Amino acid sequence: MRFVVALTGASGQVYGFRIVKELSKIGEVYTVVSRTAKRIAKLEGLDVEMLRDVSTRFYEENEITAPISSGSFKHDGMVIAPCSVKTASSIAYGITDNLITRSADVTLKEKRKLILLIRETPLHLGHLKTLTRLAEMGAVIMPPVPAFYIKPKTIDDLIDHTVCRVLDLLGLEVECKRWEGLNEV
């Protein structure tokens, strides 16, 4: 299996790091990191070199001629985690001026799965219209919203649950805590 994962300039870099790590256990991972994502990852205590180490290929956002920029590059889904509103807006309106937005654009045009972990709150009407446009184009909009029914003990529990849901959306069989309904006492 082949996956494309991009990290853009928003807080929550840990989501992208964990997704790359988990997908690398399953198949090939082609990772793209924006300049701003690198800066924020460092601020959040994460080392981008780890992504280089576990990725099949690692790209800078300006490597616009990379194989993943073409619809002929077959893959099983793309995840942008975290996804900034700037990146989401660029994708929604066909602005493909870097490898991340170009890869997302061809993912949509080829009718492949595109999952966006949007990291912005609150959302104004312009954001909502952009996200609606993306959903109408076939993207999956997935803000990393915590699930408290899993009874998390740590922040890692919350992150892991979101990562599990992303892997579910990619069609992968993964083990994680799931909603089991209300058990009245």
Automatic annotation (TrEMBL):
State the EC number(s): 2.5.1.129
What are the residue boundaries of the Flavoprotein domain, all occurrences included? 1-169
Nuclease in keyword set:
no
**Claim: ATP-binding is one of the keywords in the record:** no
Q: Which UniProt keywords apply?
A: Flavoprotein, FMN, Prenyltransferase, Transferase
Q: Which residues bind FMN?
A: G9, A10, S11, S34, S84, V85, K86, T87, R119
MF-aspect GO terms: flavin prenyltransferase activity
Instruction: Please write the reaction equations for the catalytic activity of this protein.
Output: dimethylallyl phosphate + FMNH2 = prenylated FMNH2 + phosphate
Q: Provide the coiled-coil residue spans.
A: none
Q: Can you tell which superkingdom this protein's organism belongs to?
A: Archaea
Q: What class of enzyme is it?
A: transferase
The UniProt record gives the binding positions of dimethylallyl phosphate as Y149, R165
The Swiss-Prot or TrEMBL record describes its family as follows: Belongs to the UbiX/PAD1 family.
Give the matching HAMAP family.
ubiX_pad
Q: What does this protein do?
A: Flavin prenyltransferase that catalyzes the synthesis of the prenylated FMN cofactor (prenyl-FMN) for 4-hydroxy-3-polyprenylbenzoic acid decarboxylase UbiD. The prenyltransferase is metal-independent and links a dimethylallyl moiety from dimethylallyl monophosphate (DMAP) to the flavin N5 and C6 atoms of FMN.
Name under which the protein is recorded? Flavin prenyltransferase UbiX
Q: Which gene encodes it?
A: ubiX
